[in-house]
Amino acid sequence: MKKVLFVCTGNTCRSPMAEALLREKAVEGGFRLEVRSAGISAMNGVSPSDAAVQVMKEKGIDHSSHRSRPLDGSGVAWADLILTMTSAHKQMLIRHYPEAVDKLHTLKEYVLGDSQREKVKSLHRLQAELETCRALLEQARKEGDLLREKELQGKLKEREASLASLRKEVGEMMSRMDVADPFGGDVEEYRRCAAEIEVQVEKLLDRWKNERES
């Protein structure tokens, strides 16, 4: 059974709606999934926003019992697939959990075509390698290992150059990878957000359906 984790900021608007929509549509499509959500700045036990509850009820889904949870290492380890609402969320997770880079995607990038998705994956793999290299370099400096420090400085420069080149190539595409936060907006803003998420969830299930049938 695939374990999917949606991540946003406070875990009261976007990621709970994505969780509820995927859980509902997965059942309809015959997929066996375990779905959760969390927030990078979430508090424990906060109810979803009233507008989010209303919009989900309009779609025949009651997720009023949802309670927010902060993202932590155990949640990252639990998930087979982590889908963030924005690139900024993903970047933060890569910095804190570089070992999880291969299962980290924004929701929108995950449903891209194969070639586009591979470019984005390469970009984030380079970012994870860069963070690891920086940590090792700092360790070498603390230990006074000059030979290791010089070697890592060379690797760091190589990865920074590769990353800059790849960022130019995929930068415009990445700017469209975010689901805007409706927090503080009116119910119409929540409806637009939910509709945007629903389209992406349907694309996600279409991808899995094609993979299952191939």
From TrEMBL:
It comes from Kroppenstedtia eburnea. Keywords: Coiled coil, Hydrolase, Protein phosphatase. GO terms for molecular function: protein tyrosine phosphatase activity. Belongs to the low molecular weight phosphotyrosine protein phosphatase family. Pfam families: LMWPc (PF01451). InterPro entries: LMW_PTPase, Ptyr_pPase, Ptyr_pPase_sf, Tyr_phospatase_low_mol_wt. SMART domains: LMWPc. This is Protein-tyrosine phosphatase. The keyword tRNA-binding does not apply. Residues 123-207 form a coiled coil.
